[in-house]
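Structure in, sequence out. Go:
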């Protein structure tokens, strides 16, 4: 009895001590001149292979041909909550990637980071922001439409395709979490600023791919994300028709295109491409995606960083769908496509 009490007391003491040393809080967007971090290079990047926003920043750095010191940081999906480690919380107390560091000062929020990088890249880099004010405004609308925003993107899916991404990724999360031990997810319950995120991961870990369809909040989130993603892609199809392509702003390749390539990459990883672009649906968007994937920046920023846990997660997801028609039905299939073409 005394032994148990001592163990509990020790565990509480550890948690109390660690919580004081792993304080998390929301951070403001953009460049932070008042924060100074140790650095070796002008540009440094804290990022994760799988993270949507990290991919966006890496593609942007590749388009700008900017060198950077790379600091890979694990997310729970790729192994552990390194985002909640003391060393990473010193870089970003919000506990999220990516973080761009310029001359020792962090820049927060990926849509701010790509703009910052484009504005500070120097004259040898490609211009990714148009000079004309009207085009800049248009670019920003499409950057925002692909951005992942706020603490709870699932509650704001109508606002952007980026906010639909976590919803369409739920099955892939469930598949990837098969490789992650439960105790690592529990670290999130102890220290995460937003406890509902690790809670959701625990739920997915417990349900597994096979049990996903029995967890109503998850199936509803998937259905809503498919519905809203269809709307955003319909808007993109119209934009590409009006701009006459090949890019969102027409001839000018911009930060807007960089923001969208990662949405298409997540569709690929989460095995959703056919649902949204298969069988001749949205021909302009499909051709646009192919053009984005053919750029060197896609290989440099995304493909070269492929993570084995993600690759195996996608394979398991495909296998599960091949053996379970009800999973295919849950994940959109013909219903989502028919809805969008009406
Ligand atoms: N709005 C932020 C989103 C950052 C974000 O949520 N990043 C995810 C990966 S894409 C993350 O670090 N999640 C860790 C967690 O929530 O535990 C941005 O655009 O940079």
């Amino acid at each position: 009895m005394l032994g148990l009490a001592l163990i509990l007391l020790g565990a509480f003491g550890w948690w109390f001590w660690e919580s004081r040393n792993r304080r998390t809080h929301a951070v403001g967007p953009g460049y932070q001149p008042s924060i100074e971090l140790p650095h070796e290079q002008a540009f440094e990047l804290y990022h994760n292979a799988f993270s949507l926003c990290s991919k966006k920043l890496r593609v942007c750095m590749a388009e700008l041909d900017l060198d950077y010191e790379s600091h890979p940081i694990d997310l729970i999906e790729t192994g552990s909550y390194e985002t909640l480690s003391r060393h990473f919380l010193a870089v970003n107390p919000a506990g999220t990637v990516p973080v761009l560091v310029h001359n020792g000062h962090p820049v927060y929020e990926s849509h701010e980071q790509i703009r910052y990088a484009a504005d500070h890249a120097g004259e040898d880099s490609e211009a990714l922001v148009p000079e004309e004010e009207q085009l800049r405004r248009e670019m920003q609308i499409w950057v925002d439409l692909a951005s992942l925003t706020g603490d709870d993107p699932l509650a704001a899916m109508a606002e952007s395709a980026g906010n639909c991404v976590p919803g369409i990724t739920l099955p892939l999360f469930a598949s990837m979490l098969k490789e992650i031990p439960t105790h690592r997810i529990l670290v999130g319950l102890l220290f995460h600023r937003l406890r509902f995120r690790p809670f959701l991961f625990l739920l997915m870990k417990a349900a597994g791919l096979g049990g996903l369809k029995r967890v109503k909040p998850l199936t509803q989130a998937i259905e809503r994300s498919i519905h809203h993603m269809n709307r955003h892609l319909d808007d993109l199809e119209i934009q590409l028709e009006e701009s006459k392509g090949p890019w969102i702003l027409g001839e000018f390749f911009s930060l807007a295109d960089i923001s969208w390539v990662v949405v298409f990459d997540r569709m690929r990883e989460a095995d959703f491409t056919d649902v949204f672009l298969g069988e001749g649906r949205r021909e302009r968007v499909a051709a646009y995606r192919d053009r984005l994937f053919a750029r060197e920046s896609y290989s440099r920023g995304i493909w070269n960083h492929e993570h084995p846990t993600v690759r195996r997660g996608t394979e398991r997801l495909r296998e599960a769908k091949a053996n379970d028609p009800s999973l295919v039905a849950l994940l959109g299939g013909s219903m989502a496509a028919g809805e969008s073409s009406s």
